[in-house]
Structures are given as C-alpha cells and as structure tokens.
Design goal:
Protein name: Neutral ceramidase
Radius of gyration: 25 Å
Cofactor: Zn(2+)
Shape: globular
Mean pLDDT: 91
Helix content: 10-25%
Number of helices: 14
GO molecular function, one term: N-acylsphingosine amidohydrolase activity
Distance between the termini: 79 Å
Structural class: alpha+beta
Low-confidence stretches: 1-32, 400-413
EC number: 3.5.1.23
Organism: Heterostelium pallidum (strain ATCC 26659 / Pp 5 / PN500) (Cellular slime mold)
Largest sheet: 9 strands, mixed
Bound molecules: 2-acetamido-2-deoxy-beta-D-glucopyranose
Length: 711
C-alpha cells in the first residue's frame, strides 16, 4: 500500500516534470528545433597535498596546476518545453554523493521539478590528474585519505554554477550530428581479454577498440556556434602516475584548444562557445598508443602484462617524443579536437524530435538476469560487490596501483588503510561462487559498518531528438559498450518508437561510480577490468536487461519504476589529511621573489620565476588564477595574456625543505610562437594562513622583474 502511494506520488512528480512550461520563451514553430543553453565553470580543487584520483597511488598528490579543470553544461529544451541537461566534467568520474548533492542544490536554486535525478546527466572525462577525496564510499577514498569536503564542494558547486549559466542563456538553436572514425588515438590495453569474446561477434568489428567518433554540433538561428559535444572512447591517462600537476589530460586539452579557437583567443573558461569531449566506453581503452613496454625496452608479456613475472615495470607509452607525457596529452587531445573540427564543417545528420528521459535506481547486488541477457538459457544473478586480485595489480596505464597487494599487514604507512583494514570482510562461500572465477581480494560489499562501494546504482537514458545518451555508472569495456548500444538501438530503431534513426551513445562514468563492466567472456580472463567488475560475471547482462526496460518505456511512452533511493552516506565518512597548520615566509613577505627571471627570452624558451608563497589549498582561486603572464601594452599598463588555466604555463607548489611551513611556488611560461615581442612580467597570487591559532587567510601577491621577449 505504502509502495503504491509512493509510486503514485513519484508518477505525479515525473509527469509534472515532463510538462514544465518555460517562462519568457516563445514556443517554437518548427518541431525540429531546440532551445540550447551552454555554461562553463571552474571545478579545480585543492592544488597541494591532495591525493589524485585515478591511479590510486599513495604519494601521487597534487603539487600545482598545469591547466584548470572545468564543468561544461548543455541544457536542451524541446518544442514542448521538456528539458534535460548533460554535463561533462574534467573529473575522474562522478561519484554518487556528487550527483545527489548537485540535484539537491539545483532544487534549492530552481525549486522542484526543473532539474531532478531523472533529467540531469553528470559525467566525468576520467582525467587521472585531478584531486580526489570526493567519494563518500571508502574504496575510492583510500589513497586520498578519505573524504575531503572542500574538494567535493568545489566539484559540486562548479557543476551547479555551470548548469545555472547554461540555464540562463538558453536560446533557439539547431543541432546536427556527424559520425566518423579517428585512428592513431586509442588502443586496447587488455587485448587478450577482448579475444575471449566470441569470434563471430568480433568479426562484426574492424578493431578491438571503437574508432567511432561522434560530434553533436549546436548553432544558434544565425548559424553561429553555441557548442560542440564530442564522444570518443579513450582513457584520460596520457599524463602518467608520476604527475603531480592538475590537468584535464587529453580530453581537457581538446576542449581547451577548441574553445580558444572559437572564442578568438579569450582567456580559458571565459568565452561563450563551449566544447565538451564526453567520455564513452573506455574501460579497456588506452591513449598510450605505442603499447606497453618493459624497462629494458622489450614488449611486456601480453597475457598478464608483466616483465619477468612482475607487473611494476610494464607500462604503456604514449606518442610523445621519448614518452613525454605532456606531449602525449597534447597529441591525443589534438587528434580528437582536429577530427571534431573537421566534422563540424561537414555535420549533416539532422537531430530532431523531443527531449525525453528515463531513470531507475538499481539494487545492483541482487538482480536476476534472464535470457537473452545470460550466456545460457538459465537465469543468473548479480552479486554483492567484490574486487578481484588483478585489481591490485593495476594496468599498463598505471601498474601496481594499490599498496595492499602484499597482504593486509603491509600498509606502507597509509593511515587511512591502517584504520580501515580492521573492517575488511572475509568472503563467504556463496559470494565466492557468485563471483567465480574471480579470486576475491576484498569483499567490498560486506565491509562493516558500511560497504566500500555503492550497492544501488542509477541507470538513465536521455534522448535529444534521435541522439540517445545511455548514462552508465562506471567504465564499460569496448565490447560491453557495443552490446549495450545494440540492445538499446534494436528497441528504439523499431517502428513506432517515436525515434527515427537513433544514434545511441554510451555516456561513461556518469552519475555514480561502481568500477568496470566487462563482458561475461572477458570476465573469465580476470584481467584488471574484470577484477574490477564488482557485481560479478552477469553485471553487463543485468545492465543490458535494465537499459532495455528504459528504452522500451520510451518506445511505449510509459514510465519506469524509480527503484530504491541509495543510502545516505553523509556523516559516515573519514578524513585523515591534516589541515594546513600555518604558512610562513621570510619577513612575512608572501609573494617575495626567491629566484627571479632573466632579462631576455625568445620563442620556445621557458621563463621561470620562483616565489615565496603559501599552501595552494588555502584557497582554490576558483574562476581566478594563481598566476599571470602580463604584457606591457603602454607604460605601466599591463594586459594579462596567460593564466594558470593556460596550456603554456605551469605552476608548481612545494615545501621549502628544511624550513617549516614555507612554500616555494614556481611559475613557468613556455613562450609560444604566436606572441608579440615586448616587455613582460610574471605574477603570482594566493592566500596565506599566517597564524596557527587562527583560520584567517590573507591574500598576497608578488611579481617578477620585467623581461624582454624578442621577436
Ligand atoms: C560507427 O558509426 C557508424 C555510423 O557512422 C555505425 O553504423 C556503426 O555501427 C558504428 N560502429 C560502432 C562500432 O559503434
Ligand atoms: C570571433 O571573431 C569573429 C571574426 O571577427 C567574429 O565573427 C566572432 O563573432 C568572434 N567570436 C567571438 C566568440 O567573439
Ligand atoms: C611518465 O612520463 C615521464 C615523461 O613525461 C617519464 O619520464 C616517466 O618515465 C613516465 N613514468 C611512467 C611511470 O610511465
Ligand atoms: C535477492 O532477491 C530475491 C528476490 O528477487 C530474494 O529472494 C533474495 O533473498 C535476495 N537475496 C539477497 C541476498 O538479498
Ligand atoms: C605480515 O608480513 C610478514 C612478512 O612481512 C609475514 O611473514 C606475516 O605472515 C604477515 N602477517 C599476517 C598476519 O599477514
Ligand atoms: C543526508 O543526510 C544529511 C544529514 O545527515 C542531510 O542533511 C541530507 O539532506 C541527506 N540527504 C538526502 C538526499 O536525504
Ligand atoms: C619552436 O618549437 C617548434 C616545435 O618544436 C618548432 O617547430 C619551431 O621551429 C620552434 N621555433 C623557433 C623560433 O625556434
């Protein structure tokens, strides 16, 4: 009874959400058009001392910024006023707590029934060079020493601000799409697992990764660019696990380069045109296109990616000269950008129809999967979450990622791990059987008092006309993504579905993170991606079955059950990174020069200035900058040409050992050929915490001597 009441209440909510009237907006005459809004906002979190999200490597902590991270939002409204928003963030992934917090903040801002769990899709590009600490579930917080509230807030608030900006600038526009192929930009990092998929199935595809790239082009009624949204499956692991600088990796670079071009060289994050490079089924897809090599230059042993039986030495190498990770990032990013730009010129697939959305929370630990989504004619079931042994071995993009491979008394001094290890559960017989053939390393679903990973996960479909976005709560491998797309495509391509020529896309790492999703056959091989497929061998089958229900509901124009809302993790988190105690500079002169610039430089030179500064995590300088490179345009008139969001600059933070509490801030600027000759200077600004007895922060700034750049 209660259930029926709840369901009725939810249906009322859902159906009223579908009929939102847009104020101050003319109803569009032409059914083929949309109203489109775009917004961008800074989500760069703590740039010092914070564990980075992705490689799960203790000690890989932030120590400066290469370029800033952004949230890019696209609001789509159809001619009946139905709206949905897609957001791509320069983050590793979206955690459940982020989605819940963002929806809560949006409801506070806009009132109920404008933006909800159902019509908001949040996705991460999967950069491995952003600050972590924004997961409330323990597994994804181990190497960041737990949940870092300020890091979480920076991401949530930035996403909300990008949506508010998009909401406030909706205007009538047109959408066209284009599909093409991009080569030399991704390879499969677990090809032996891929090979275990049936030969007939593999024969349908040219490659063991998707080369398909899809562009969604948005222009206003005058044909002027509003935004671009590109999907291509590749890990953002061009920056390797030795990096300490915050970076959007290859997709962040692609966005940066395109926005710079179309916004006429305006400072990063400021122009009206927005280009997002959304993540897709990148689970087994690496940007390190030269392949994986051992320290002696030989190829790794392919089946388990080892060198002489050890995984540590085997690493994937990008296309940059001598494996330079900055150059690799730029090459893989530029490849995506240039191809998308080429597709922008020719885009011709009409995107027409309505904006629709379906969303369900799935109790993923116990879904009964029926044929045809099982490998046999028998029903099967998903399992309580568990991680396999290969998970600890890492991948060729980041070997030996976790520090607990040696057994549970080798904690390498990680205080969070020391603390949490007493809660680890021994797997039960049922669990071992359910997860077989996976050897269980951590039974993350059985840890007390709370599981380490989510057990209820969201699935969602958003359609923008014939563009069909399947939001998946994790990393689908290449073949998993294809199977999911095929399932949804068959349903929506059928006559009477209301969608003509659907273009079905996987929007990866969306709304919640729950590890990888390998196919049943890949699971048998138990490489990293399978070991990290936490809900067992039938995980993909369950997703196909449940996504089929969402697609059918769209085709039949009815609603789906909302499913159980996930547990509230607020208040059940831990954090072991001590706060900044205090900052110190000689004579209290924060911003004073430690090492000045030279006098004359030329194109391709790198100018370096070092300042006495403060801890960069005192204030994240959101929508601002820790540095500027200024040109003297007339006597004592300076124009800022580069900031810490620029590719050409880097800012490094480090403790000034052996001084206690002193920070040295190094600013580097590599002079690009486009620059005019003249007089320049470098500045640094930030906030210091001068007293250990007060939380008060004081702003400071400093500047280098002036220097000359010759033509
Ligand atoms: C790639 O895109 C084409 C359309 O251009 C489509 O027919 C094909 O199914 C796609 N292939 C994959 C593997 O997604
Ligand atoms: C960039 O410059 C071109 C040519 O002057 C102009 O048409 C366009 O509107 C400008 N775009 C922006 C975003 O300022
Ligand atoms: C990371 O890249 C740098 C070059 O940018 C290289 O020197 C280093 O060996 C690489 N490390 C790993 C673990 O791949
Ligand atoms: C799983 O769900 C079935 C019903 O679908 C129920 O009978 C069973 O007890 C559940 N098992 C667990 C472990 O929750
Ligand atoms: C702890 O590690 C040592 C080797 O470093 C090993 O001999 C011992 O058995 C381990 N103890 C437990 C409880 O795992
Ligand atoms: C979760 O709990 C916290 C307090 O414990 C509360 O403030 C918050 O609103 C709750 N969130 C949801 C979505 O219920
Ligand atoms: C700067 O470096 C680029 C790339 O290495 C090179 O093509 C260019 O010729 C260099 N320019 C000058 C002036 O040295």
């Amino acid at each position: 009874m209660k259930y029926i009441l709840l369901l009725t209440a939810l249906l009322v909510v859902v159906s009223s959400a579908v009929k939102i009237q847009i104020e101050n907006n003319v109803r569009l005459e032409d059914n083929s058009d949309f109203q489109i809004g775009t917004g961008i906002y800074d989500i760069t979190g703590p740039a010092a001392e914070t564990g980075m999200m992705g490689y799960a490597m203790p000690g890989q902590v932030t120590g400066g910024i290469h370029f800033r991270l952004r949230s890019r939002a696209f609001v789509f409204i159809d001619s009946n006023g139905n709206r949905a928003v897609y957001v791509s963030t320069d983050s590793c992934m979206i955690f459940q707590a982020v989605k819940i917090q963002v929806v809560q903040l949006l409801e506070e801002h806009f009132g109920p029934n404008v933006y909800s769990h159902e019509n908001v899709l949040l996705s991460g590009i999967h950069t491995h060079s952003g600050p972590g600490g924004y997961s409330m579930y323990a597994l994804y917080g181990i190497t960041t020493l737990g949940f870092y509230k300020e890091s979480f807030d920076a991401i949530c608030e930035g996403i909300v601000q990008s949506i508010i900006r998009a909401h406030n600038n909706v205007k009538p526009g047109k959408i066209t799409a284009e599909q093409s192929k991009l080569y030399d930009s991704n390879i499969n990092r677990s090809p032996t697992a891929y090979l275990n998929n049936p030969a007939e199935e593999r024969a349908l595809y040219e490659n063991d990764v998707d080369k398909n790239i899809t562009l969604i082009k948005m222009v206003d009624t005058n044909g002027s660019p509003i935004g671009a949204l590109t999907f291509f499956a590749v890990h953002c692991t061009s920056m390797n696990n030795t990096n300490h600088l915050i970076s959007g990796d290859n997709k962040g670079y692609a966005s940066y380069a395109w926005e710079k071009l179309f916004n006429n060289n305006s400072l990063p994050g400021t122009g009206p045109f927005i280009a997002a490079f959304g993540q897709s089924n990148e689970g087994d897809v690496s940007p390190n296109t030269l392949g994986a090599f051992c320290p002696d230059g030989s190829r790794c042993y392919a089946p388990d990616s080892t060198c002489n039986g050890k995984n540590e030495g085997c690493k994937g190498i990008g296309p940059g000269k001598d494996g330079d990770m900055f150059e690799s990032t730029q090459i893989i990013g530029n490849n995506q950008f240039q191809k998308a730009l080429e597709m922008w010129e020719t885009a011709s697939i009409p995107v027409q129809g309505s904006v629709q959305y379906r969303h369900t929370w799935l109790p993923m630990t116990n879904i009964t999967v029926y044929p045809p989504f099982t490998p046999t004619a028998e029903p099967a079931t998903t399992c309580r979450a568990a991680m396999g042994y290969s998970f600890a071995a890492g991948t060729t993009d980041g070997p030996g990622a976790f520090d607990f491979t040696q057994g549970d008394n080798n904690t390498n001094g990680n205080v969070f791990w020391n603390f949490i290890s007493k809660f680890i559960a021994k797997p039960t017989e049922d669990q071992k059987q359910c997860q077989a053939p996976k050897p269980i390393l951590i039974d993350v679903g059985l840890t007390k008092p709370l599981p380490w990973t989510p057990d209820v996960v969201p699935i969602q479909i958003i359609t923008i006309g014939n563009i069909v976005l399947c939001a998946v709560p994790g990393e689908f491998t290449t073949m998993s993504g294809r199977r999911l797309r095929n399932t949804v495509y068959e349903i929506l391509n059928a006559q009477g579905s209301g969608i003509e020529n659907p273009i079905v896309l996987v929007a990866g790492l969306s709304n919640t993170y729950s590890g990888y999703i390998a196919t049943y056959e890949e699971y048998e091989v138990q490489r990293y991606e399978a070991a990290s497929t936490i809900f067992g061998p039938h995980t993909l089958g369950a997703y196909q079955q449940e996504f089929a229900k969402l697609a059918t509901s769209i085709a039949q124009n009815n609603q789906v059950e909302p499913g159980p809302f996930p547990r509230n993790m607020t208040g059940h988190t831990f954090f072991f990174l001590p706060p900044v105690v205090y900052d110190e500079a000689p004579g209290g002169n924060f911003g004073a020069i430690y090492q000045d610039v030279g006098t004359t430089y030329a194109v391709n030179d790198t100018v370096t200035a070092v300042f006495y500064g403060a801890n960069l995590r005192n204030n994240f300088m959101i929508e601002s900058t820790f540095l500027s490179v200024d040109l003297e345009v007339s006597p004592n008139q300076w124009e800022t040409l580069f900031v810490d969001g620029s590719w050409e600059t880097k800012i490094y933070w480090k403790m000034h050992v052996p001084e206690i509490a002193q920070s040295l801030i190094t600013v580097e600027w590599t002079i690009p050929p486009t620059i005019s000759a003249g007089t320049y200077r470098i500045t640094h600004q930030g906030y210091a915490k001068p007293s250990m007895f007060s939380d008060k922060l004081v702003p400071y700034s400093g500047q280098s001597s002036t220097f000359t750049v010759t033509a």
